[in-house]
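Supplementary Data S3. Sequence and structure tokens for construct A.
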Amino acid sequence: MPPKRKATAHEKGKGPVSGSSSRTRHVAEPPDDGGIPRFRTDEIEECYTKSWASKACHKERQVAREDFSHHLLERVIQHCGWHKVADAPHAVYPTLVREFFANFNLDIDVPESSHRYKTWVRGQWIRFSPTMIDKYYGLTRTEVVPLPAPHEIDLALVARFLYGRDDAWPLATPRFMHDQLTRELRALHIFVSSNINPTRQRTRFTEHRAILLHHLARLRKIDLGTHIFEFVRELATAMDSQRTIHFSCLISGLCLAQGVSLFPTEEADPPAALLNARSVENSETKIAASAGVAECTLHRPCTPMRMILMTMPQAPPPAPAPAAGLDLSVQMAQLMAAQT
């Protein structure tokens, strides 16, 4: 006897419960694949359903380069040859990107593998390697300067350069802070956080990202093809259900350029917001608006009264009491000196 099925709210004539605490979760329908094979094995399909199907696809951003014509960001793009990296990225097909990661060849860089630098996508093996990434972006490996490790560079020098202050080191916070960067470096960091070393959390960042920013700002070129390849491989093998998928535009472009088929009803996502001068200004406005809240929550939850007290002008410290046993004229001189 089959198990008893509970009637749905729709069958009971009830709609979704409304209210501030209720949420309606949208469950995506399986795509019309048109007979295109999607998974190499049943285990991969199960892994896709449990993990990859629910991951968000982070998109690279186009840079409005005319807004940064005399800016550090444009100098970095020019020096590194990242014109296509900064131009309008390829349209993103989220299902295709998720399937790319679910089917990723775990032996992709094993020399003895018959599918070295290849991975399986929708019934065919496509090339995915540092060389393919270089070719897609039109990159060269000339004048590449290896990125130093934290023990190979003076972090105090890095901090002073990024913050533009002599007193930047030691850091006042456990990590480097985006809002402490100089204005030009903030724009570069936003670009790096979308298109080079992507992350959803750029407010605070590690010494490794700080070294990368310092490296690029000093106009030192990195091997971007190898960097992206290793980033994608690590993401594909991490199997962390909480992590976001990155380089979605690049992966969509590489797949379609090698003849991977789209489903009959498969549509592209809208592009990410343009990275222009206004978006950088908006980022700075948000930083300024949240500065008080960030300071307030650094040690304990904020209260309305504490927020008021934080914004009130601070009274000067009281003058020190005169030392006992001194002449009255000496005491008055000390008080006058303390007040000035």
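Construct B, processed identically:
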Amino acid sequence: MSEHILLLPEGQSGGRRHAHSACVARARRGGRLPTRDEWRRAQPRPPGLWTRLRSRWRA
């Protein structure tokens, strides 16, 4: 494993940062640093196709 890990701050894909792997591991154990997959699962899902079509008919 590398000594440093590349991180992307939320909403700032151009603002890449690095962190020491030990600090990242400590934050992961503490629940303060989700992986990208964990973050994506926590985001609200967009409305499905059926919901979008139904809303157009009502408007």
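The chain has a mean pLDDT of 84. The beta strands are 4-7, 17-20.
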